[in-house]
Specification:
2 domains; D-Maltodextrin-Binding Protein, domain 2; 310 residues; single chain; nine-stranded mixed sheet; alpha/beta
């Protein structure tokens, strides 16, 4: 009987130690859809070198990432907009990781697609469509004779894409008007199916990173940056994902809606597995940034963020 009890005690202790080790090697991450594909790519590559490390990564929007991080529900939140003073006051800690952008999207079946590609839309046009519901028909911005309704889609979840797009237009996410759709995949699907629709998406959901082409059913509306009523050669960089990424990296595409993406946490992470992973994303992991469809941040910024880990 004593032998059995001894064996049971040893088994319980062994199980407890194994459980603690597993927890110490598990990294929980949630948040922005914009960063989700890169975070998954990083996790896959990191585990090739560190097979004992486990990842639990979920999307849900930047708002969820920040809330989960500040509450301690996850160790890292994925975040895709500028960090506010209010969030800083709550003790948020952050590091920048990469750059991407939000782009205005429409259906590939839009009847004015050719005209939109030729002349694009100005910032004030987008503002009149998305803020205040001032523009209701495509004829209002394209000067065509037939009146076809513009159906506006916006994000229903608190997210960096909406906040970044709204900031570009001079507003906030709550000032955007339209049909609320949850998540980047959802809004991409909705606008692709609606010939009169307009929306905004993170680049990784407007383009297929494997083919470099726009996702099936989706087109990107060129921004008339110099507002001369036409898309000049230096503004025409939307045909492939690579062209757009180069324009973002060169600073030609406006910022916002180009923006930096972050990991956030409630204070500086203390768990060794988390610190080691973040260091790797800012060093060896940077070689996967372009491959995953993002823009690398400058080395001086990387050095600044690495200093925050010391």
């Amino acid at each position: 009987m004593r032998s059995i009890v001894y064996i049971l005690i040893v088994a319980i202790l062994f199980s407890s130690c194994a459980s603690k080790e597993k927890k110490a090697q598990t990294i929980t991450i949630s948040g922005a859809f914009a960063l989700y594909p890169l975070a998954v790519k990083w996790a896959e590559e990191y585990r090739k070198e560190n097979p004992k490390v486990r990842f639990n990564i979920t999307g849900g929007g930047a708002g969820k990432g920040m809330a989960d991080a500040l509450s301690g529900t996850v160790e890292l939140g994925m975040f895709s907009r500028e960090i506010s003073n209010e969030e800083k006051d709550k003790g948020v800690w952050w590091v920048g990781l990469t750059i991407d952008a939000v782009v205005p999207t429409i259906s590939a079946q839009n009847p004015y697609l050719d005209l939109l590609k030729k002349q694009g839309l100005k910032k004030e046009d987008f503002s009149s469509i998305f803020i205040g519901d001032k523009t209701k028909d495509w004829s209002d911005v394209l000067k065509v004779s037939d009146n076809k309704e513009i159906v506006v889609y916006v994000r229903s979840d608190a997210c960096g894409a909406a906040e970044t797009w709204a900031k570009y237009l001079g507003g906030k996410q709550e000032t955007l008007s339209g049909i609320g759709i949850f998540g980047d995949p959802g809004i991409a699907e909705a606008v692709a199916k609606d010939a009169g629709g307009i929306a905004f998406n993170n680049t990784a959901f407007a383009y297929d990173i494997n083919t470099g082409k726009k996702r099936d059913g989706i087109e990107v509306i060129p921004i008339d940056i110099n507002e001369n009523g036409m898309i000049d050669a230096n503004e025409n960089f939307y045909n492939t994902f690579d062209e757009l990424l180069k324009a973002i990296a060169a600073g030609i595409y406006p910022s916002p809606p180009a923006r930096e993406l972050y990991f956030v946490a409630k204070g500086k992470p203390q768990k060794k597995a988390v610190i080691d992973f973040i260091k790797w994303t800012l060093t060896d992991g940077q070689k996967f940034v372009k491959e995953a469809g993002y823009v690398t941040i400058k080395q001086e910024k990387i050095n600044e963020y690495l200093d925050k880990l010391k």
